[in-house]
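Note to self: keep these together.
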Amino acid sequence: MRFPSSILVSVSLFTAETTAALYLSSTYRSAGDQIWQGLTLLFTLVPSVLVQLTLTFIHRDLSRDRPLVLLLHILQLGPVVRCLEAFCIYDSVGRVEEPYVSITRKKQMPRRGQAEEVERQVGQAEGKLFTHRAAFSRTSVIQAFLGSAPQLTLQLYICVLQQGVSIGRGTLMVISLLSIVYGALRCNILAIKLKYDDYEVDIQPVAYLCIFLWRSFEIATRVVVLVLFSSVLQFWVLPVVFLNFLVFFFYPWILFWHSHSPFPENIEKTLTRVGTTIVLCLLTFLYAGINMFCWSAVQVKLNDPDLINKSQNWYRMAVYYMLRFVENASLLLLWYIYKTDFYEFIFAPLLLLQLLVAYAIAILFMLIFYQFCHPCRKLFSSSMTQGLWDCSSLLCLMCTSASPPNRQKGKTAMEESAHKKPRNDGANDTASDSTEGVPNDTTYDMLNDTIYDIPAEVGNNIGGEINGDLSHNVACNA
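Structure:
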């Protein structure tokens, strides 16, 4: 059984950030900065309350008689208690006899086109520890993007206004940045395990390093861009933030309404329709908060029983990063135009170039991760480079079709001959070829299942029949 290191890291970051925020709010109070004190406490207590509710909901404490645990959750000490409980379970493994065990079947990564199933016995203690890990993975994401990300943006904005960094503020900023990066990393790992739940996933240290560097550059650049823009255009930053948030909040709901699917009712049996709606709104709220600062590895899909989209959509990822890069460049350009005298000692063009290069480096590490370090890259129906190439081809095609024709008359003989050439059942349809190369929905998942379910002998026979049919057709045409 693995050591619960992820639980220890989550609780350590939660405790350190809460302690640093409370200390910093006391310094704001002594200095008479009531607004900064209130906002610092707000970005500390709100995610802490959501973390307590998440732990209580996942462990179903409301349906059990555990008044002491509920009291500690009310006192905002739930993560500490859960961590101690997880370590007690880990310490009892091997000392207490398991009353029963369950058998799980997981597929190994395919080798030479075949995936072998492996059975493994899971004891009661290991099952409880797995529940604790899953709960802390979700709370790390909530703490990161609903608490640490706004906190880091606020404290960096105060540093710009006061033209200085105190020890307490600097400590809180470093802890908040580590908490955001760790939350984004857990979001990536959670997405991989949810999408490939049938497989035994083994994540290498190089993959962790790539994700850490990718998320560090992406999040740090995004926060600095927002702070620089808000320092010169205080009123315009609110429409930018709210527009981003509302787009990502309503996007899953629009897709759900467009699919005409029934309302999800399999989240929790004890929840009413109103409670289910509240849970789904909180889920899309978290989804919007993640996409405000970085790419959400877990894509919400309300019409799916698991509430996530398990297909790998390169097109959506490419569109997100292209639009985000354009947005960051536009905000930096506006900052450069309207910058105040405070930034005279900074070489603004160099800073602007550094931020854009840093975001490009984040995209580079993202490409390296999906191309070389992803633990389930063998299950991809198409490589990431091919998918992004298809996306860029589709966008170029859309731009070309949107531009007006240069001439309506005087076509050359070559153009007329190409126009008169009969179409071969859509084989030369460029738009269709472009969109078919983009993986979406469950097409590639069905293709993967088909590939792994067909035995090798049957596949060889089918291939021989196809080759024989093709040879026969060629001979008839000749």
